[in-house]
Amino acid sequence: MIKKYLIVNGIEKMVVADPETSLATVLRKNLLLTGTKVGCGKGECGTCTVILDGKVVRSCITRLKRVPDYAQITTVEGIGGVNNLHPIQLAWAAVGAAQCGFCTPGFIVSTKALLDENINPTREEVRAWFQKNRNLCRCTGYKPLVDAAMLAAKLMRGEVTKEDIWYKLPEGASLLGSDAVRPTAIRKVTGTWDFGADLGLRLPYDMLHMKLVQAKVSHANILSIDTAEAEKMPGVYRVLTYKDVPGTNRINGLAFPSNKGDGLERPILCDKKIFQFGDAIAMVLADTPEHAEAAVEKVKVEIEQLPEYMSAPAAMAEDAMEIHPGTPNIYFECGTIKGEDTKPLMDTLEYVVEDDSYVGRQPHLPLEPDVGFAYINEDGKLIVHSKSIGLHLHAAMVADGIGVKLDDLKIVQNPTGGTFGYKFSPTMEGLLGVAALVTKKVVYLEFNMFQQITYTGKRSPFFMHLKLGADKNGKFQALETDWSCDHGPYCEFGDLVTTRGSQFMGAGYGIANIRGAGRTVATNHAWGSAFRGYGSPQSLFASEVLVDKLAKKMGVDPLELRYKNVYREGDKTPTGCDPDVICLPGLIEKIMPKYKAAKATAAEKNAKGGNMKYGVGTSLLIYGCGLDGPDTSHAWAELTATGVTIGNSWQDHGQGADMGTLTIAHETLKPIKITPEQIKLIMNDMEFTPDSGPSGGSRSNVLTGNATRVACENLLAAMKKADGTYMTYDEMVAAGKELKYPGSWTAPCTAPDPATGQGNPFPTYMYGVLLSEVEVDTTTGKVKVEKLTIAADIGTIVNKLLCDGQIYGGLVQGIGLALSEDFEDLKKHTTLTGCGIPQIKDVPDDIEIIYQETARPNGPYGASGNGEMPLSAPHASIINAIYDATGAQITHLPARPEKVLAAIQALK
Ligand code: MCN
Ligand code: FES
Ligand code: FES
Asked: 864 CB less than 6 Å from ligand 1?
């Protein structure tokens, strides 16, 4: 142990700790300064950034023994607090730079050090600083962070004031479409928005720390599990295996009726088999994380190794064994039957192109690893806190497995540092629930980044083959599709994501005749979970890249070809229904001048010769809002002495559920002249908030927005007097009137028939047209995205900062999907960098958004959703730009330099 005196945020502090302890741990655990977050714990992400004697350091890799006595340390808490925000914090909130907020304290501290050195930096200098100091962000696409740093510098130089930059609602005005700052922003920029690991430090001192015994192979029979030695290790309270689980030990995957499996194949703790790397085999519960970790090593698991089927083609091979005995590896099939038979039709068409394509196991890479805790409350209810973005859904999926009545299980969402969809699946809820139920103690579990990456769901790879035919006028007449979805070993939502092939291959075009066949395949690679876009990034990639191939064959411009074919009145979507609105021609018209200018610039640069080639690509971006069919959401509104309280379970990944709820409630309650400050939000706690459905499928703005609107309308109706004015709170109480009103909304939709893919799945869609400009180094294959321009139609904008933020962040994840991100190699793809997360240097600073607001008949105040559209097909546009630059078309992602180089060389 060593004793150190540190000057932390100007105050002298004494600490005693192991010399090897990281400074991050000292700050967080000894000094309870939880504004400093730990993401990777390995020096890769910058969430733990602090200033040490004037220098930016990553505190997770700074050992206490290396910190000099009386070192001056500045954490986010020392920069400013909720009541005295520093200009950097003000700027960060004002421009919407804090989405989930997990990276925010690290960036703010880093910016403080930069501006201490240089109060007038250029944007390039800011970018270089964040790159040098390894500050990563997964939500914002970085541009808003540079905007915030530049604005902070201006504030500090006295060129603008707080009043200039902080949105203020004019009296009586609408919040809709404004730049109002989300309510949670202030806590995020001050580091006081407590994520799961921060809350973990506020739990009872005698809680149990859980660590998992996890599978080290991808497919095996379990012969025995011996916990005897582990149970005797210091500090160990219990070691639990499947035998201790009070319930069925199965997570309910909610399989479709036509799924050949029963949906109950995923264990909470493995019993007979290991299905994938990282599967949980036993839980060690101990007084400290270190004791639990040490005991994990002592659990002996005897296995019989089985062949590992690491991709759909491998699991579909004739001689492959059934991964779940009794259920075929191809466990779900679906298709598209729209219009005439395409086979004879293709032969009559002037232009036909076809190709294979592949979009892989994109890792989500949130900066906050999975974390949660559970306990039994005073009423005997099992309370589970996690990053769940589907509280009621997850309770229904895990209650039987844990062995608790559904009514006695309440899940609560902790402030969440991004999920991008992996938390559409339950992860640790079952484990925490079992441990708390069995021990009756508070139990706490946090994953490190290795566990987060290797053992949470991933995007489901699609292996696709598409054939597209156009007549002599260039009108698309027929599409044939075939796709296999590798969903890993667990079926949950695998059937649903496979049906997205029917819905989004060829989406955006009024193709009258489509035939397709898709299938879901069980494999031993990472289980498939939702990922932003959910099936559309796979499907649209295949069709949008094929459109450019067709354009080349026809000798026409690809954007003109798109313009000719996009939905017009009378056209039907691939599912055979009317598009919600016709807006794509308008979007292309907005992009066209930018596109022509970009083409001219690229031609000019190419004319100079050299190894660098420049290209321009486009793609349509489309996704639907909602869970297929008559999806429903619930909310409530209650009149109080001080205003109105709104309750819903609009789970927040970081997208801005608080601001969405506030804006829609405020808009609806305008007749009673309420201010935003008088609206209180109670969100995401099953003890208090109703089932609003999961925050997936970009459904919440439409579904929960509408339910919130209806709840507020119901309240207003009860308050309304005969003369058209409204009763006050006192009058309502005096009249004995109910103060709390529920509101529900159901999408007027029908789920498609899986066999034909025909139906009307979504109440609204989101549309975009993206223009990408790239530079390709033909000697190395390295691609640089120089500029992105998007024309987006997401209906009425609810909050402009939220919408801009969603679009920047989604597009940049698309750069990752196109060029670098992967989770395939279990040895290599285990860190943020190894998985190819885009850093600021990989992302253009030049990203332009052009909005077109076509009101949606089904959306609240005409709004559609936004979350997933920007990641539905940006990668197709980037790949099309590489094609334009070099003539090499990469159809299997990611287009890493070596692949691009090989494709360019193959052309020669
Ligand atoms: N919005 C708006 N105006 C519109 C449409 C949407 O202001 N016309 C706002 C909404 O109020 C909401 C946000 O945009 O705050 C996204 O709305 P919506 O599309 O309805 O999506 P959800 O609220 O259901 O959020 C889920 C969606 C999905 S499915 C994933 S995955 C996702 C995402 O949003 N993961 C995210 N965005 C994310 N953003 C962050 N920072 N982190 C994630 O993990
Ligand atoms: Fe320290 Fe990632 S760099 S937590
Ligand atoms: Fe940067 Fe979420 S806001 S990681």
From this structure: yes
CA of 61 to the centre of ligand 2 (A): 7
- Pair 83, 152 in one domain: yes
How buried is residue 727: exposed, middle or buried, by Cβ count under 10 Å (0-12/13-18/19+)? middle
pTM, rounded to two decimals = 0.98
Amino acid residing at 829? H
Confirm or reject: Cβ of 419 under 6 Å from ligand 1: yes
**pLDDT of res. 528:** 97
Query: Of residues 265, 297, 868, 898, which has the active-site annotation?
Result: 868
Point out the ligand nearest to the CA of residue 802.
1
Q: Ligand 1 centre from 602 Cα, in Å?
A: 34
Residue whose entry in the numeric block shows the structure tokens 């400050």: 677
Range of the domain at 783: 541-623+765-907
Q: Please, which residues have CB within 8 angstroms of residue 459's CB and are 6 or more apart in sequence?
A: 359, 360, 361, 362, 363, 364, 528, 531, 537, 538
pLDDT, tens only, 123-140: 999 999 999 999 999 999
Cα 105 from Cα 126, distance rounded (Å)? 16
Helix (H, G, I), strand (E, B) or coil at 480: strand
Ligand 3 interacting residues, C-beta cut-off 6 A: 98-104, 137-140, 367, 418, 654
**Do 671 and 802 have their domain in common?**
no
Q: How far is the CA of 450 from the centre of ligand 3 (A)?
A: 19
Domain harbouring 264, CATH code: 3.90.1170.50
Percent of the chain with pLDDT over 70: 100
Q: Is residue 7 part of a domain?
A: yes
Mean pLDDT, residues 491-506: 97
User: In this structure, which ligand is nearest to the CA of 93?
Assistant: 3
Q: Are residues 65 and 177 in the same domain?
A: yes
Residue range 29-44, pLDDT digits in tens: 999 999 999 999 999 9
Atom of ligand 3 nearest to the CA of 107: 1
Kindly report the average pLDDT of the chain as a whole number: 98
Confidence of residue 244 (pLDDT cuts 50, 70, 90): very high
Q: Of 698, 719, 746, at which residue does a domain stop? A: 746
Distance (Å, whole) CA 726 – CA 509: 49
If you measure from the C-alpha of residue 350 to the centroid of ligand 3, how many angstroms do you get, rounded to a whole number?
Answer: 49
Q: Are residues 547 and 615 in the same domain?
A: yes
CA of 38, closest atom in ligand 2: 4
- Fill in the amino acid letter for 549: K
Based on the residue annotation, tell me whether 163 is a catalytic residue of this protein. Answer: no
CATH of the domain at 575: 3.30.365.10
For position 149, what pLDDT does the model report?
Answer: 98
pLDDT of residue 529: 97
pLDDT grade, residue 258 (50/70/90)?
very high
Counted domains in the chain: 4
HSE-CB for 499 with a 13 A CA cutoff: 24
